[in-house]
Design goal:
- The chain is mainly α and about 100 residues long.
- Helices cover about 65% and strands about 0% of the residues.
- It is built from 4 helices and no strands.
- The longest helix has 19 residues.
- The protein is elongated, with a radius of gyration of 24 Å.
Length: about 100
């Protein structure tokens, strides 16, 4: 599936909005990535709904692409904090093998 001129231009706009640093030959990789995303959009209904929701926010003027990127980054950070939070280990008193009290 080849991207149209407008889709390629949108990829370049995305690169500018997100600060993607496209050096020599890297823009081709970005275009390829956009092509893969377009295929996923066409085939994956949940992904399509997500993209359409974001598009609605942008078109409706509710959020800029940069604000959506920030929100997604924050959501990921919150997810990681919750996922990697230490879980307390509870050992029932009858299973304790070593008494750590300094009582004699």
């Amino acid at each position: 599936m080849k991207l149209t001129y407008k889709e390629k231009k949108a990829c370049k706009t995305y690169a500018q909005l997100t600060g993607y640093q496209a050096g020599e030959g890297k823009m081709g990789k970005l275009i390829s990535m956009c092509d893969d995303l377009k295929k996923r959009y066409d085939c994956d209904d949940k992904f399509k709904v997500l993209v359409d929701t974001f598009l609605g926010f942008i078109v409706g003027g509710e959020f800029t692409p940069f604000e959506l990127s920030q929100a997604l980054t924050l959501a990921f950070l919150i997810f990681e904090e919750k996922r990697s939070a230490p879980h307390p280990i509870v050992v029932p008193p009858d299973k304790v093998l070593i008494n750590i009290d300094n009582e004699k």
